[in-house]
Amino acid sequence: MQRLKLQLVLFLSISTCHTVFSFTDGLLPNGNFEQGPKPSQLKGSVVTGHDAIPNWTISGFVEYIKSGQKQGDMLLVVPEGDYAVRLGNEASIKQKLKLIKGSFYSITFSAARTCAQEEKLNVSVVPTTEKRDWGIIPIQTMYGSNGWESFTCGFRADFPEAEIVIHNPGKEEDPACGPLIDSVALKVLYPPKRTRAIC
């Protein structure tokens, strides 16, 4: 009996380790940005290190925003949890993931406009080759209770490893202007298969 328990515990721990390496559904690791930079990696709200936000790599002017933080007379809110990131001019966040080659995925995230009238985001999936799947998403002013909107785009994993990149291609006078990002998630899509049944 003891041997059976030991084998069961060993099997469960191996299974748990496996799910860490192969991503299927849910928030990306630290996809809600609740794990933030160390105080030494922040200058006010500006993130100063490329790897300062756990599980993410950043480039350009990226801010770590706490819910309730003020920008002039505007109060910045976060839809889930306490923290989000803001991408300034030409800034981006990215995360490398192991995927199931040939599978279809959807990327979902929340975004909110903060300054400019026409903010945009470039969402791309960058494999280890030069081929890239991408799309431009316009960020509109939302007149809801919190001003956030959810976006989804899909792609097929042509390689077992790729980087998910969210980039602000804007060039505003104020480099800090840019959309807020939160709750980045990934889901495997199972397309319907043709059957021989007649409807």
Percent range for β-strand residues: 35-45%
The top-level CATH class is: Mainly Beta
Sheet/helix structural class = mainly beta
- What is the name of the CATH superfamily? Galactose-binding domain-like
Organism: Glycine max (Soybean)
Domain DUF642: 26-187
Protein name: DUF642 domain-containing protein
Main location: secreted
Sum this structure up briefly.
Keywords: Cell wall, Glycoprotein, Secreted, Signal. With 199 residues, this protein is mainly beta.
What key attributes describe this structure?
mainly beta; 1 helix; globular; Jelly Rolls; DGR2-like_dom; five-stranded antiparallel beta sheet; six-stranded antiparallel beta sheet; 10% helix; disordered N terminus; 40% strand; 199 residues
Question: What is the fold's blueprint, element by element?
Answer:
Elements lengths: L1 H20 L4 E2 L14 E2 L2 E2 L9 E3 L2 E5 L3 E2 L2 E2 L7 E5 L4 E7 L5 E9 L6 E9 L5 E7 L9 E8 L4 E7 L12 E10 L10
Antiparallel strand pairs: 1-15, 2-3, 4-9, 5-8, 6-7, 8-15, 9-14, 10-13, 10-15, 11-12, 11-14
Give a description of the structure.
Strands 1, 5, 8, 10, 13 and 15 form a 6-stranded antiparallel sheet that branches. Strands 4-9-14-11-12 form a 5-stranded antiparallel sheet, with no helix packed on it. The N and C termini lie far apart (53 Å). The radius of gyration is 20 Å and the shape is globular. It has a single domain, classed as Jelly Rolls, CATH 2.60.120.260. The longest helix is centred in the first third of the chain and has 20 residues. The chain is built from 1 helix and 15 strands. With 199 residues, it is mostly beta strands. It is found in: Secreted, Cell wall. Its main location: secreted. It comes from Glycine max (Soybean). Pfam families: DUF642. This is DUF642 domain-containing protein.
